[in-house]
C-alpha cells in the first residue's frame, strides 16, 4: 500500500467506484435471506447548503447501517427529505425578485414549480455531499415530502389523527411574521438579543383595594409594572405577581406605587432618583456606593403576592380593566415584581382581543393613535400615550437588552397574533382514549435509549410540548384537505374526505386539491351540518412543514411492513423538534412506539467560523468528518471547529500510517499457504483479537462508536507502533517458516482491523483492503465483520 500524494482525490475516486460498482446494493444482496435490520433517521431539509446537524445524523446512521450489513443483516437505509418550509420559499422569492419578478404575481402552480426545481437542485447537491462522505443509502428510493406518494402519506396520517379525535380548530395565540405573512411554527421562531425601551408603567388600582387595605383609602394607588416590550401593552389584560414575594405600597410624590420590596431601591433609583439618599458603605474590600430610602415611613402598607391576586386595575390609555394573577415565573432579578403580561404563544385565544393581524398592524381596538401602525414602529407613539397620561415613570430614552423572538427565515421580529388554527391538542383527549401527551410519555419507557440521557431529553420535550398548530399560510407544501361551508363557516374535517384527496394527490400531485371543485371530494349531496348549506370553499392553508417532516418516519417505515424499526437515529437536544414530532405522529396514529431502540445525539455547536460541510470536505476530506461523528456524538452538545477537524485529520493519517507500516511487511506473503512458525507475540495478539473484536462488536451494537476508535487506537499503539515492529524485525528479516509466521500474524491483524474500522473509516479501510496480498473479496464491505478467534499457546521453538 503506497500513500497517495493526494488522499482527497483517492477518497473521491473511491466514492465514485463504490457508486459505480453498486457496492451498497451488492452488500444487501449478499445478506439476502437473513432477518432485515430496519434503520431510520430524521429527514434532511434538502434546502440550501447541507447543515452540520444533518451531516452528523446521516453519518451516524451510515456507521450503524454498515455495521449491521457487515454483520450479516441486510440494512437498507432509505433517505428521507423534507424540502417543504419557509426557508426554501424565501430563497425562491429572493431569486424571483433578483430576476425582476414579483413572487406574488405567480400562480400557485408556477410558484410551486419554481420551489420544486430549487429543491431538486438542493437535493442533488446534498446527495453528492453524502456520497462523497462515503454514505451508503438507496438514493433512488429516497422518500421526499414533495413527491405525490409522500404527500398522500402525510394526508393519510392526518386522516388517522382526525379519526381518533385529535384534530381540532380553535382560536389560538401564536407568533406571526409580517414579512412572511404567516403564523410561525414553534421551530420557526428563535430568540435573539434586542435593544428595546425600558418602561416603568403605572396601572391605576381598582376601588376594591380600599376594602382590603383601608389605610390606602382616598389615595391614588398604582401597580408599577416593568416591560421591555412596548408593543405588548395594547393587548395587556393582566399583571403577574409571585405568590411568595413581599410587596410594599410606597408614597412617591402624590401617588402610591406598589412593587416587590427586594426591588424597591433599584426601582426608585430609576424612576425618581431624588427620593433617595446616596450612602457610602465602608467594606473590607473597599467602599461601595449604595442608595437608601429618605424615610421608611413612606412605606404605607405591606402585602403578599396572594393578597394582590384578583385585584383589578385600569389600562393606562384604553377603557379596559385588568387583574392581578399569580405566576411562579416572576423573578426578583429585575423589574418590579409585577409583570405586564401579554398572551403567550400556544394559549387559547377565545374571548381575548387580538389587535394585530398577520400584516403586523394594529387595528382600531387599541385606539385611534395606534390604528394602522406597524407593531415594531409604534414604540414612540406608545411612549407618547403613556407620558400624556402620566403613566410612564422613567425617562423615555432608557433602554435594555433582552431576548426577543424573531422569524428564523427572514430574521424579522415576531409578534403575537390570535387566529383560528387547526390544532393537534396535547391534553384535550377525546372520549375514552388517554390524551396524546400521556400516550407519548408512556411509550418513551418502552424503548431502549442509547445513551440513556436521550430518554430524559425526549420526556422533557414532550412534557413541555404545546398544542401543535398544523396550518400555515404558505404556498409550497402539502394542502390541508378540509372545507368550510360558504353559508355559516362551519368546518368539515372528515377522515374520509382526507383519504379521498390523498388518493387523488397520489395520482395527480398536490395541485389537484386546488384545481378540482371541492364538492368533488366532499361527495354528492353533502350538506352542512350547521345550516344545511350545499356550497363550500376549500381550506387554502398548507400543513405545517414540521408535520410533513414528522410523517416521513411513517412513510419510510411503510416500506418495512413487519413492524417498528429496530433502531432510530435522532437528535434529542432542545432543538430536536423533528424527532419529538415524529414520535407524536407515530404514537398518535398507531398507539405504539416507532422503534425498538433509539440512538440519540446532541446538536452541533461550532466554536469558530467553521467551514460549510461541502467546503470542509474539500479541505479535510471525508475521514476526519466520519471520525468526528464517531468520537464526539455522545456529547450533549457536539463540538466542532476547524482546529478539531485538523486534529482529526492528523489522527486519521496516523491510523493510515500504522496500517501502511504493517502492509509494507507483507510483500511476498500468500495467505492460505503452509503454516509458519508461531511467534512469542502471537498469543498476546490473538488474545486481543478474541477480546477486542467482542468489545468492538458490543460497542457498535450499543451506539458507543467512540469506544470502537479508542479500542482500536490502543491496540495500534501497542502492536502496530514503530517500537512494536522492532520485535518483529528479526523474524520478518528471515526466510522460511519464521518470516511466513510473522507475516501471517500481521495479515490477520490488518485484515481484522480494517473490517472493524470499515463502518467509521470507510475510505482508509477500503484502501488498505485493496492493498492486501492474495485473493480477497472485491470490497472490504463484502468481506463480512470479523468474529472473535481463539488464542493459541506460543510454540516453544518460536
Automatic annotation (TrEMBL):
GO-annotated cellular components: cytosol
Keyword ATP-binding: yes
Enzyme class label: ligase
GO biological process, one term: isoleucyl-tRNA aminoacylation
Enzyme Commission code(s) on record: 6.1.1.5
Domain Aminoacyl-tRNA synthetase class Ia span(s) in chain numbering: 17-610
Pfam families per record: Anticodon_1, tRNA-synt_1
Keyword line: Aminoacyl-tRNA synthetase, ATP-binding, Ligase, Nucleotide-binding, Protein biosynthesis
GO molecular function: aminoacyl-tRNA deacylase activity; ATP binding; isoleucine-tRNA ligase activity
Catalytic activity: tRNA(Ile) + L-isoleucine + ATP = L-isoleucyl-tRNA(Ile) + AMP + diphosphate
Domain called Methionyl/Valyl/Leucyl/Isoleucyl-tRNA synthetase anticodon-binding: residue spans: 689-788
Family label: Belongs to the class-I aminoacyl-tRNA synthetase family. IleS type 1 subfamily.
Function: Catalyzes the attachment of isoleucine to tRNA(Ile). As IleRS can inadvertently accommodate and process structurally similar amino acids such as valine, to avoid such errors it has two additional distinct tRNA(Ile)-dependent editing activities. One activity is designated as 'pretransfer' editing and involves the hydrolysis of activated Val-AMP. The other activity is designated 'posttransfer' editing and involves deacylation of mischarged Val-tRNA(Ile).
Name recorded for this polypeptide: isoleucine--tRNA ligase
Organism of derivation: Stigmatella erecta
Amino acid at each position: 500500500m503506497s500513500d497517495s500524494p493526494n488522499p482527497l482525490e483517492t477518497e473521491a475516486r473511491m466514492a465514485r467506484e463504490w457508486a459505480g460498482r453498486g457496492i451498497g446494493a451488492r452488500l444487501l444482496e449478499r445478506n439476502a435471506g437473513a432477518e432485515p435490520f430496519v434503520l431510520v433517521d430524521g429527514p434532511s431539509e434538502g434546502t440550501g447548503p447541507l447543515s452540520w446537524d444533518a451531516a452528523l445524523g446521516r453519518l451516524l446512521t451510515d456507521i450503524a447501517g454498515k455495521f449491521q450489513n457487515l454483520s450479516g443483516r441486510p440494512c437498507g437505509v432509505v433517505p428521507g427529505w423534507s424540502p417543504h418550509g419557509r426557508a426554501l420559499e424565501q430563497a425562491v422569492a429572493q431569486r424571483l425578485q433578483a430576476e425582476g419578478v414579483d413572487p406574488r404575481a405567480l400562480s400557485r402552480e408556477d410558484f410551486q414549480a419554481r420551489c420544486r426545481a430549487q429543491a431538486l437542485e438542493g437535493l442533488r447537491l446534498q446527495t453528492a455531499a453524502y456520497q462523497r462522505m462515503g454514505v451508503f443509502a438507496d438514493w433512488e428510493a429516497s422518500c421526499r415530502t414533495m413527491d405525490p406518494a409522500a404527500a398522500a402519506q402525510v394526508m393519510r396520517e392526518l386522516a388517522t389523527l382526525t379519526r381518533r379525535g385529535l384534530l381540532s380548530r380553535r382560536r389560538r395565540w401564536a407568533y406571526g411574521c409580517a414579512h412572511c405573512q404567516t403564523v410561525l411554527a414553534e421551530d420557526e421562531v428563535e430568540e435573539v438579543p434586542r435593544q428595546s425601551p425600558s418602561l416603568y408603567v403605572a396601572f391605576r388600582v381598582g376601588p376594591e383595594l380600599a376594602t382590603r387595605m383601608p389605610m390606602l383609602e382616598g389615595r391614588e394607588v398604582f401597580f408599577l409594572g416593568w416591560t421591555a416590550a412596548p408593543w405588548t401593552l395594547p393587548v395587556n389584560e393582566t399583571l403577574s405577581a409571585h405568590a411568595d414575594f413581599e410587596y410594599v405600597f410606597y408614597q412617591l410624590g402624590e401617588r402610591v406605587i406598589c412593587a416587590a420590596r427586594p426591588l424597591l431601591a433599584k426601582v426608585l433609583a430609576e424612576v425618581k432618583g431624588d427620593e433617595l439618599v446616596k450612602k457610602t458603605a465602608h467594606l473590607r474590600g473597599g467602599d461601595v456606593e449604595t442608595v437608601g430610602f429618605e424615610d421608611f415611613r413612606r412605606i404605607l402598607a405591606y402585602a403578599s403576592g396572594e393578597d394582590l391576586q384578583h385585584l383589578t386595575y385600569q389600562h393606562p390609555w384604553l377603557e379596559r380593566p385588568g387583574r392581578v394573577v399569580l405566576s411562579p415565573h416572576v423573578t426578583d432579578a429585575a423589574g418590579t415584581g409585577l409583570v405586564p403580561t401579554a398572551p403567550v404563544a400556544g394559549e387559547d385565544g377565545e374571548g381575548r382581543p387580538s389587535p394585530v393581524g398577520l400584516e403586523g398592524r394594529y387595528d382600531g381596538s387599541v385606539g385611534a393613535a395606534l390604528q394602522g401602525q406597524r407593531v415594531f414602529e409604534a414604540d414612540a407613539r406608545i411612549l407618547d400615550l403613556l407620558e400624556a397620561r402620566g403613566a410612564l415613570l422613567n425617562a423615555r430614552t432608557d433602554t435594555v437588552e433582552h431576548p426577543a423572538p424573531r422569524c428564523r427565515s427572514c430574521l424579522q421580529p415576531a409578534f403575537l397574533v390570535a387566529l383560528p388554527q387547526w390544532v393537534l391538542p396535547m391534553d384535550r383527549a377525546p372520549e375514552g382514549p388517554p390524551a396524546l401527551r400521556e400516550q407519548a410519555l408512556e411509550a418513551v419507557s418502552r424503548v431502549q435509549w442509547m445513551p440513556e440521557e436521550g430518554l430524559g431529553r425526549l420526556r422533557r420535550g414532550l412534557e413541555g410540548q404545546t398544542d401543535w398548530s398544523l396550518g400555515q399560510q404558505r404556498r409550497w407544501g402539502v394542502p390541508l384537505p378540509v372545507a368550510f361551508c360558504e353559508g355559516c363557516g362551519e368546518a368539515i374535517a372528515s377522515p374520509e374526505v382526507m383519504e379521498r384527496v390523498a388518493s387523488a394527490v397520489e395520482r395527480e400531485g398536490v395541485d389537484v386539491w386546488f384545481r378540482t371543485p371541492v364538492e368533488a371530494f366532499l361527495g354528492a349531496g353533502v350538506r352542512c351540518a350547521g345550516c344545511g348549506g350545499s356550497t363550500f370553499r376549500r381550506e387554502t392553508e398548507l400543513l405545517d412543514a414540521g408535520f410533513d417532516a414528522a410523517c416521513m418516519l411513517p412513510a419510510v417505515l411503510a416500506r418495512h411492513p413487519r413492524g417498528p424499526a429496530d433502531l432510530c437515529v435522532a437528535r434529542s437536544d432542545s432543538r430536536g423538534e423533528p424527532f419529538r414530532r415524529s414520535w407524536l405522529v407515530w404514537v398518535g396514529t398507531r398507539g405504539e412506539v416507532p422503534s425498538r431502540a433509539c440512538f440519540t445525539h446532541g446538536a452541533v455547536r461550532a466554536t469558530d467560523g467553521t467551514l460549510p460541510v461541502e467546503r470542509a470536505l474539500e479541505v479535510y476530506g471525508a475521514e476526519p468528518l466520519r471520525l468526528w461523528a464517531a468520537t464526539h456524538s455522545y456529547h450533549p452538545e457536539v463540538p466542532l471547529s476547524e482546529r478539531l477537524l485538523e486534529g482529526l485529520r492528523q489522527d486519521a493519517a496516523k491510523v493510515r500510517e500504522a496500517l501502511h507500516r504493517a502492509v509494507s511487511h507483507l510483500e511476498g506473503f500468500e495467505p492460505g499457504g503452509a503454516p509458519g512458525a508461531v511467534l512469542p507475540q502471537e498469543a498476546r495478539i490473538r488474545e486481543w483479537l478474541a477480546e477486542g473484536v467482542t468489545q468492538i462488536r458490543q460497542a457498535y451494537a450499543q451506539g458507543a462508536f467512540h469506544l470502537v476508535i479508542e479500542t482500536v487506537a490502543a491496540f495500534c499503539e501497542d502492536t502496530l507502533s514503530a517500537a512494536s515492529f522492532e520485535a518483529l524485525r528479526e523474524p520478518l528479516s528471515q526466510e522460511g517458516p519464521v518470516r511466513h509466521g510473522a507475516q501471517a500474524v500481521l495479515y490477520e491483524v490488518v485484515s481484522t482491523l480494517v473490517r472493524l474500522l470499515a463502518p467509521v473509516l470507510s475510505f482508509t479501510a477500503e484502501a488498505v483492503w485493496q492493498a492486501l496480498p492474495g485473493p480477497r473479496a472485491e470490497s472490504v464491505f463484502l468481506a463480512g465483520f470479523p468474529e472473535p478467534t481463539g488464542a493459541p499457546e506460543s510454540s516453544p521453538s518460536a
